[in-house]
Design a protein that fits this description.
Blueprint lengths: L2 E5 L8 H11 L12 E7 L4 H6 L2 H9 L5 H4 L22 H4 L1 E4 L7 E5 L14 H21 L2 E6 L5 H8 L3 E6 L5 H13 L9 E9 L6 H7 L13 E2 L22 H19 L3
Parallel strand pairs: 1-5, 1-6, 2-4, 2-5, 6-7, 7-8
Antiparallel strand pairs: 3-4
Helix pairs in contact: 6-7
Length: 291
Amino acid sequence: MGTVLTVMNMKGGVGKTTVATHIAGIAPRLKLDGKEYKKVLAIDYDPQFNMSQALLPAKTYFQLEQERSTTLSILVDSNTDLNPYELQVAGNYNPPPVAKLATNIYSPRAHGGKLDIIPSTLDLMYVALGQSENQTKPMEERFEKFLADCRDNYDLTIIDCHPAGSLFTKTSLKNSDHVLIPVMPQRYAVRGIGLMMKFISAKKASEKSPKPHILFNNVSRTKLSDQEIQIRNNPDYRDHCLTHTLKKYTAFSEPEEGRGFVWASRKPYSTEAFANLISVTRELFQRMGLR
């Protein structure tokens, strides 16, 4: 049974997609404690589709979008006519199988690890208009069934989720085991964490909340900021904070169309950035029980 991790912060501008993309990319390249490499699925669940642009060549992406092999098809039927002025309703309660929507990005012959992606599309925003419970119930059930299929086929599913209180937030958190909250050491960072904690804990009595993990992103390589110290000293948050932080390296902001990642870069400090990413990912996986 696979694990589902959502990467999310209700506050924008924290490098959410950068974190999600790099962890998804490095995960199938790591062998932990002598065990097999992981089969990883990245789900771009953000209408801005930045993760898709980082991992897929433009030509491939537009072909997949034309074929409707995107996250939109998880929620509504592929032949649904989208109208931005009408509520979107799923035609039935059964999503397509994950094998039909997933596109392979990385699958070396040397070992069994791999990375697949289900890209997003700007059209996904249309479903956000369907906010009445009667309209969204079919979508919620479809997403739950789809994630169950993902668990059966992948060791780890990473969801890059839309940073707002929406259908995407609700379905992602409800079906995740863990939530990674990227935080930048800046003003109002504490408020972003507080909002996330409220969303994570907002559940029915019969539902289990995903476990939160706080990752400080784009931090100084030489010193701690006042904001990071404040959050780490907060009794409500300190136990959720990763010890390792993702440092400020230019290499982390360069990926585009599947190129420029730190594990394939020869630019200055890319080796240090690569080691930093491995340290963060290993600690996160240990906290998640992925060994």
